[in-house]
Write a structure and sequence with these properties.
Elements: H1 4-16, H2 23-38, H3 57-69, H4 105-120, H5 134-141, H6 146-157, H7 166-179, H8 188-209, H9 214-226, H10 236-241, H11 245-249, H12 255-270, H13 282-297, H14 304-317, H15 335-354, H16 362-385, H17 401-423, H18 428-449
Helix pairs in contact: 1-2, 1-14, 2-14, 6-8, 8-9, 8-15, 9-13, 9-15, 12-13, 13-15, 14-15, 14-17, 17-18
């Protein structure tokens, strides 16, 4: 997939090699490259007044302040200090308030679950592995406990309870688990699987290369946890074609993604027992909410090629090869550019986690493939009953499991992870799994054709 931006960056890089280009022109070319890479080419900026324009400065500052007060881009408050250069180190930005905390019976039970599961399945793949199987964990923990147990282990490992309220998390994770419906694919097991993949990417380069602090990490993990919360088991196209209430509410734009974020924050803000932001200031909560919401919205599949183009622009513009120069993806010009550039890479990785089923060993990927096609076929049956167009891959009488997966793996997942591992080379095991899965599906397709 050749992104126009990447080709333009190549041409600009060639210009920089020409001896005829003077210093000022080089500076302009580099600035142009930065704008393309940042994705802000068409974003209007409020400029600082030039000499002779000081008389409008006060009015312009007031205008900027007014706009910021009503903008979702506004980043304010004491927590902004965490977005200064961190030199790749992870450090908590909010300290737990002093005082005794109620010892949670729920968390005690989770700790017991973990020990029992490990004793029961000593050969179970650990949650740090790219070969993690949520189905093994479901067998070990039980279907009701797998998501809470895994979430608690992962959030604790990343010191997330220095940010969110550990006691409120008890009620929160319980209601999140119950809120995931019994769909074949978009259910609590998928949430657990995506959460583990987020964790894997964090410890294999994302955390250090993107210079993430504990707030960034916590938001990323919570987003993975809730990204499909209350999923109805049908896709955005179905909701649009049936003029559903959700499609009307969200104006046909990222319908499900907006819905998931909305329901997650409705739980946090409207149920006091689930307010995991309870010990944060309004500004701190605002920033965490923005991170989480943007990550959830980034899972909309219509953004896939946008994410792909952004990675291509990074690799071309910063000359990234096997992780070298990858830290350049974070624009350190200001606190705002740091925040935004971190958000872009978090969005890319969240989408990667969401489509990562084929990057597991084939036995696991096969189970996921059967589940997703089962859910698609159920939607197709409903579409037929309503006499509307049957969505792609949703007709149970057309195609095979193998043929459907080859297109997904070869055309979507593998090209995405091909680029991702250039930025995060420690994710190579995921790409190796993906290549093996692709080969297995092709083998099955060829066998079906005989």
């Amino acid at each position: 997939y050749g992104a126009p931006g990447a080709k333009i960056l190549e041409l600009l890089k060639e210009l920089l090699t020409m001896k005829e280009i003077d210093k000022d022109s080089r500076k302009c070319i580099k600035w142009s490259m930065e704008q393309i890479i940042s994705g802000k080419l068409y974003q209007t900026e409020m400029q600082t007044p030039k000499k002779g324009e000081e008389f409008i400065q006060d009015k312009k500052i007031n205008m900027i302040e007014w706009l910021e007060n009503f903008s979702t881009q506004n980043i304010t408050g004491e927590i902004i200090d965490s977005y200064k250069k961190s030199k790749g180190k992870v450090k908590p930005v909010i300290v737990n308030k002093t005082g005794r905390k109620r010892k949670s019976i729920f968390l005690k039970c989770l700790s017991q679950d973990i020990k029992i599961a490990q004793d029961k399945s000593p050969k179970m793949v650990p949650f740090n592995s790219p070969n993690f199987s949520v189905f093994e964990n479901e067998t070990a923990y039980g279907t009701e406990r797998v998501l809470p147990s895994l979430a608690y282990q992962i959030l604790r490992a990343h010191k997330a309870f220095a940010i969110i309220d550990e006691n409120a998390f008890e009620s929160f994770i319980s209601k999140i688990r119950k809120g995931y419906k019994d769909n074949p694919y978009h259910n609590h097991l998928h949430a657990a699987d995506v959460l583990q993949m987020c964790h894997f990417m964090l410890i294999n380069g994302l955390r250090d290369i993107a210079q993430l602090d504990t707030t960034d990490i916590t938001a990323f993990l919570i987003a993975g946890l809730v990204h499909d919360f209350q999923h109805p088991g049908v896709n955005n196209a179905y909701l649009q074609n049936t003029t559903s209430d959700l499609a009307i509410v969200y104006n046909d734009k990222a319908i499900l993604e907006n819905f998931h974020a909305n329901k997650a924050f409705e739980l946090i803000w409207r149920d006091p027992s689930c307010n995991i932001f309870g010990k944060l200031s309004k500004d701190e909560a605002k920033i965490l909410r923005k991170r989480i919401t943007q990550c959830v919205l980034a899972t909309d599949n219509v953004l896939h090629f946008d994410h792909l183009a952004t990675m291509q622009n990074y690799i071309t513009g910063f000359d990234i090869k096997k992780g070298k120069h990858a830290e350049s993806i974070i624009n350190e010009d200001s606190n705002l550019t740091i925040f935004e550039s971190k958000q872009r890479i978090l969005n890319i990785c969240m989408h990667a986690a969401d489509i990562s089923n084929p990057t597991r060993p084939f036995a696991t990927a096969y189970q996921w493939a059967k589940r997703v096609i089962d859910e698609f076929h159920r939607q197709g049956d409903m579409e037929k009953s309503k006499s509307i167009t049957v969505s792609f891959l949703c007709d149970r009488n057309v195609g095979t499991l193998a043929s459907s997966q080859i297109g997904f793996v070869s055309g979507i997942v593998k090209p995405y992870f091909d680029l991702l591992v250039e930025i995060f080379p420690n994710d190579v095991p995921l790409l190796e799994n993906c290549r093996n899965v692709e080969s297995e599906w092709k083998r099955m397709r060829d066998k079906e054709g005989k």
